Amino acid sequence: MAQKTDATDFRKLDDYHLNAHIRLHEAFFKCLTERMHPNNRRMRYFRRKADDTMDKLEALRAEKARRKALAKG
Questions:
Q1: Alpha-carbon torsion 51, 54, 58, 64, what sign?
Q2: What SS3 state is found at 39?
Q3: What is the pLDDT of residues 11-62, one digit of tens each?
Q4: Are 21 and 45 in contact, with CB atoms under 8 Å apart?
């Protein structure tokens, strides 16, 4: 079961650190999905971690889009 990430935590980050978090989560997600193949015994673990990572990545991207919308006015 994926944990719900609180988006307000990401509001504390400045733009540089927000982008860094997005890049790191994208790299981690790519690493996890490369290891997800049917013969791997830890498939359930990688699937759960990928779900959690994708939830955080969606929250980070939503925060970035929110900031972009605020900057446009």
A1: positive
A2: coil
A3: 888 999 999 999 999 999 999 888 888 787 888 888 899 999 999 999 999 9
A4: no
C-alpha to C-alpha distance for 62 and 27, rounded to whole angstroms: 18
What the block records as the tokens of 58 is 């969606």
Length, in residues, of the chain: 73
Q: How far apart are CA 44 and CA 47, in angstroms?
A: 5
Where residue 13 falls (left for φ over 0; alpha for ψ -120 to 50; beta otherwise) is beta
Tokens of 65: 């889009």
Query: Nearest-5° angle of CA 57, CA 63, CA 65?
Result: 105
